[in-house]
Amino acid sequence: MDSEFFPNGLTDKRQLELAVETAQKTTGAATRGQNSTLLESAYQAIQDARTMSQSSELQALDQDFLQQQRMLLDDCQHQLDEFKK
């Protein structure tokens, strides 16, 4: 199946990859900088990427790819949860 293109020209798969990368980078910045605003942004980035990964358009993608992306988000979530303790 061909991927749909977002208005910015990125495929849905690449858009999800970028969302997960954003969540990872924001998580790292939040834990390094110990900044509550960045912490909230990191949680939001994770939630946004999770929502995107569950969209009906992305369900047609390779399930292994989706599972890998979700595992990366789980790692981010765990890192933030541990940091907050």
User: Looking at the structure, what is the overall shape?
Assistant: elongated
User: Which stretches are low in confidence, meaning pLDDT under 50 for 5 or more residues running?
Assistant: none
Q: Which class of secondary structure composition applies to the elements?
A: mainly alpha
- Bin the strand percentage: under 5%
Count the helices. How many? 3
Number of structural domains: 1
Q: Note the main sheet.
A: none
Radius of gyration from CA coordinates: 14 Å
How many individual β-strands?
A: 0
Mean pLDDT: 86
Structural commentary:
The protein is 73% helix and 0% strand. It is mainly α. It has one domain (12-84). The mean pLDDT is 86.
Q: Quick gist of this model?
A:
Helices cover 73% and strands 0% of the residues. It is mainly alpha-helical and 85 residues long.
Give keywords.
single chain; 85 residues; mainly alpha; Uncharacterised_YpzA; DUF2564 family protein; 3 helices
List the helices and strands and how they pair.
Blueprint: H1 12-33, H2 36-53, H3 63-84
